[in-house]
Structures are given as C-alpha cells and as structure tokens.
Design brief:
- It is a single chain.
- With about 350 residues, this protein is an alpha+beta fold.
- It has eleven helices and eight strands.
- An eight-stranded mixed beta sheet has the order 1-3-2-7-8-6-4-5, with helices on both faces.
- Strand 4, helix 5 and strand 5 form a beta-alpha-beta unit.
- Helix 7 packs across helix 8 and helix 7 packs across helix 9.
- The radius of gyration is 20 Å and the shape is globular.
- The two termini are about 25 Å apart.
Length: about 350
C-alpha cells in the first residue's frame, strides 16, 4: 500500500479480498492476516460475533465454542464472551480447540473426518435482531440450504416463537456496556492509571455512561431476558440438530461506513456530561434498535451459550466472501465439526485466495 493511498483513506485494518472493505471485527487483524496467508490460524474472541463476523468477511472458517469450553478473558457480566480462533481449514480449528479446551472430553479433530448422520436443520429467515438482510446474504443462505439438502439433510424454515428481539437488543446493549464499565472500573488491571475522558472514544464513553447510570437498576432485567432467550432456543433445539442463518445481513461494508457521524459523536459527549437517567435510558433504547442491523444473528448465540460457526460457502458477484452461520446444541461442537468437515469436502474453500496474498506455500 503506498503512502499516498494510506494517507488518503480512513484508518482501519483492510480486507485482503478488497482493500476498500472491512475485514470485520473485533478480531479483524487476525482475520486479515489469516485470509492473506500470513498465518494458517489466528486467535479471536467472540462476545457478539467477533470470530464469526470477520470469518464471514474474509472467507475463513470461524467457530465460537460453547460457553465454558475454552479459557476466556473478559466478558465477565452475562458470560457472553468466548475465545477461540479463525482458520482457513476446519481441521486446524478443531485441532486448536483440542489443545486449549478447558475440559477433558473426547477430542474434536477426528470428528472433522466423519460425515454427520442426516441432520434436521432449521433455517431462520426472520430479521432476528435487525431489520432485514441483503440480496447477497439471502443468496448465500439459499446456496447453503441447497448444499445441505444435497448432502441428505432435512432443511426446513423454522425459528423459535415469542421472542422479543427488541428486548434482547436492549439487554445486549446493557451487558456490553456493563462489561466496559467493569473493565474501566473495578476490573481495571492498572487501577493507578485511570483513563481520562479525552482518552476514551465517544462510543466507549457512551457505553461507560450507560453502565454507570443504568446498569445497577436494569442489569438484572437484562440477565432475565438473556435467560428467557436461552430457554426458548434450548426448547427449540429439542426438535432440531442445527440452526442455519446468514452470518451477517450484508457483505463486508466499506471502511468507515459504520463510523459514528459527527452528530452521533456530539450526542455521546452530551450524554456523558448530563448523566440524566431518563435521557440516557431513552438514548440507550434508541441506540440498541439499529445497533445489530449488520449482525442480527451472531449475538443471539453468545447469549444462549450454544456453539456456532461461520462457514465460507459463497462469494458475491463482485468477489466478496459472504458466510453462513450454523448453530448447534450447547456442548455439541462435535456435530458442528462433522458438518463443517462435510461441507468443506463438498465445497472446498481453502484454496480460494484473495488478491492480497502473502505467497506462502502450505
């Protein structure tokens, strides 16, 4: 990348498939390096999709393990965060989880070589936490449906009833904000070095304000909403082996497209100064409504604790990867790895290389 190009562009890690696009986040640096062939596998942590989102954006395989499966840093409140990795192959992901997992159960590497028994797969086509998906994401979903059916699986449109996704979005916002508040407060690893207001980005400052003003009163309700969601999905999964959704509502967006506008930055700063509970509560609900439009499905399985994976089965007409997400029953990574291995053999993606490639042989 030339100095002139870099100086003229918004800051941000670039997507090897198109330098104008994001590699997703928050593990975007890991995804970019892995997708460009610099490394075969890279760490990611996932509190709302931050393994699966960049995997979808960069044509990688990304699995979020079940809650408690692997050692995890952060995500104290709500237990939504999980650590694992992004990789170009299903094999490497399974081998890595075998090495780092917290328990002593059966290993997963061998599961990648076994086809699953015919599965009952429920396809979620509703908007989830968002307000609709793009034509590319619908095409990726339809492609995955057809592929799974061709492999002998039963695929039907179905999803849990009675879920208030607006309440779930607000609960997620409170949980995210509370974790930020904890890390910048009692969880600060360097308490002698408190961050000053000017050192915190506006969005983080807004989250910190929400945590400080609202969390004590409303966090219990958020956790209750989380448990209701988990119960609804656990009951639903008594009838199905797997849930299939788009990973994201659209292909990777342009660098800077999701950045706060100047007006939004000013709003964040005003909220932080006024600290009026009623005003902040209204702002928090307003923020939560569109917050998950691009990622309407991934955070659901952080709240339920179930394992979920983004699989790179589709590329858009302009050459951008568009992943699909499969979620399984809690603690059933084995079935996910079997299906992932079957899909990888049926529709190989590992040798697809982006325009920006390290040239390393494998």
């Amino acid at each position: 990348m030339t100095t002139e190009f870099a100086a003229s562009q918004p800051r941000g890690t670039r997507n090897p498939w198109n330098l104008d696009r994001t590699p997703g986040g928050s593990s975007g640096g890991s995804a970019a390096l892995c997708a460009a062939g610099v490394v075969p596998l890279a760490h990611g942590n996932d509190m709302g999709g931050s393994i699966r989102i960049p995997a979808s954006c960069t044509g990688l395989f990304g699995l979020k393990p079940s809650r408690g499966r692997a050692p995890t840093v952060g995500g104290v409140i709500g237990s939504a965060n999980v650590d694992h990795a992004l990789s170009r192959s299903v094999r490497d992901s399974a081998a890595f989880l075998d090495v780092v997992r917290s328990d002593d159960g059966p290993r997963f590497l061998g599961e990648t070589e076994r086809d699953p028994a015919p599965l009952r797969i429920a396809v979620m086509r509703g908007p989830g936490l968002g307000h609709g998906v793009s034509a590319e994401s619908r095409a990726a979903l339809d492609h995955a449906v057809a592929l799974c059916a061709s492999l002998g699986h039963t695929v039907v449109d179905a999803e849990p009833d009675g879920i208030d996704y607006a309440a779930v979005s607000y609960a997620l916002l409170l949980i995210f904000a509370s974790n930020i508040g904890w890390h910048l407060g009692s969880g600060n690893p360097t308490p002698e070095r408190r961050l000053r207001r000017g050192e915190i980005e506006p969005a983080t400052l807004a989250m910190l304000t929400i945590a400080q003003v609202l969390a004590l009163d409303e966090l219990t309700g958020a956790v209750v909403t989380q448990r209701k969601l988990q119960a609804a999905f656990d009951a639903f999964m008594e009838r199905y082996d797997m849930i299939l959704t788009p990973t994201l509502a659209a292909p990777p967006v342009r660098i800077g497209e999701l950045a706060l506008t100047r007006g939004e930055i000013v709003q964040c700063e005003i909220l932080a100064r006024l600290r009026m509970p009623a005003l902040i509560r209204k702002a928090a609900r307003d923020i939560s409504a569109p917050m998950f439009d691009w990622l309407p499905y991934t955070p659901i399985f952080n709240l339920t604790g179930a394992p979920a994976m983004s699989v790179p089965l589709y590329w858009s007409a302009d050459g951008l990867p568009v992943g699909v997400q499969f979620a399984g029953r809690t603690n059933d990574e084995a079935t996910l790895f079997r299906l992932a291995g079957q899909l990888e053999r049926a529709a190989p993606w590992r040798d697809r290389r982006p325009p920006v490639w390290s040239g390393a042989d494998e």
